[in-house]
Structure formats: C-alpha cells, structure tokens
Amino acid sequence: SNTERTFIAVKPDGVQRGLFPEILSRFFNKGYKLVAIKLTMANEPLLREHYADLQSKPFFPSLLSYMLSGPVLATVWEGKDVVKQGRILLGATNPLASAPGTIRGDFAVDMGRNIIHGSDSVETAEKEIALWFKKEELVDYKPTLYSWIYE
Ligand code: DAT
Ligand code: MG
C-alpha cells in the first residue's frame, strides 16, 4: 500500500561528511514522503535493541562505538514498497559490493563506515520506527505532488 513506512538513518559518518542533503534528495526525488526527521545522539541501550540480532558478532563493539561517535539523522519515509525500494537506494551492506548509483556505492568504501541504515522488512521497520520515534513525532499530511507520483 501507499502507506508502507521505513526507518532510514544517516549514520554519524554520513552526518559529519555532510551527505544527508544528497541522501534525503534521493528519497524525495524517487517520490517518497518524509513523515519524521530528527538529528539525535543514539545511546547504547537503544543500539543494543536496534542491532539485537548482531550482538554476538565480533564486529558488534566497533559497530556500537561507530554509531555512538556522533549524531545520527533519523528519518521515516512513507510510500509504495518503500522498505524494499529503500534498501535498493542504499545498496549492499558492503559498499564495495554496491553498484554505482546507490548511496553506499557512490559515497562509501568500508563496511564499518557505510553511512546509512535502512530497515530490512516491514516488520523490522515498524519496530525500528517505534524504537527511534515517539508516536507524536510522526506527522500526517498529504503532499501536494501526490497525484503526480501515484496513479
Ligand atoms: P545492513 O546495514 O545492510 O542492514 P546488517 O543489518 O547485516 O546490514 O548489519 C548492520 C551493520 O553492521 C552494517 O551496516 C555494517 C555492520 N556490519 C555488518 N556486517 C559486518 C561485517 N561482516 N563486518 C563489519 N561490519 C559489519
Ligand atoms: Mg540491517
């Protein structure tokens, strides 16, 4: 449906490198609707929940310190197939395996500095949105361009 939502976060390196306007543009240009946005510092309990499935991995401590190294730009986007399409816009986890034209393919080299996060399923997206945002931080509006993007 057109109201599917995904959680996209520009990681501390993407924020420090000033890449977030370019990243936001890619989602806007595709036709997706921004429903929440905030610049925020993560914290360890939040990250342990966000990356719960990775806690036993050897790279987890460096992932934690990376994600705590500066502010994160947390966003929520809405639109048709936005979870899967968002992952396509991001590219592969390893930037060296990401095609040019994708965000990681165009702007990153190392897996541990891959500049952006995107939810990997609709269920994960719902959990991540609830983890990073309060309900009242998600806004409800109709974009003026809506009928030029959806048939
Ligand atoms: P993604 O961010 O593409 O969803 P993921 O959820 O498997 O990938 O992993 C979360 C982050 O952890 C990923 O963006 C970068 C880091 N990471 C994953 N696998 C890694 C590895 N093998 N070595 C180092 N960092 C890794
Ligand atoms: Mg993931």
TrEMBL record:
Name of protein: Nucleoside diphosphate kinase
The organism of origin for this protein: Kuraishia capsulata CBS 1993
Broad class of enzyme this protein falls into: transferase
Residues annotated as binding ATP: 11, 59, 87, 93, 104, 114
Keyword Transferase tagged: yes
Keywords: ATP-binding, Kinase, Nucleotide-binding, Transferase
The family this protein is said to belong to: Belongs to the NDK family.
Domain Nucleoside diphosphate kinase-like: 3-140
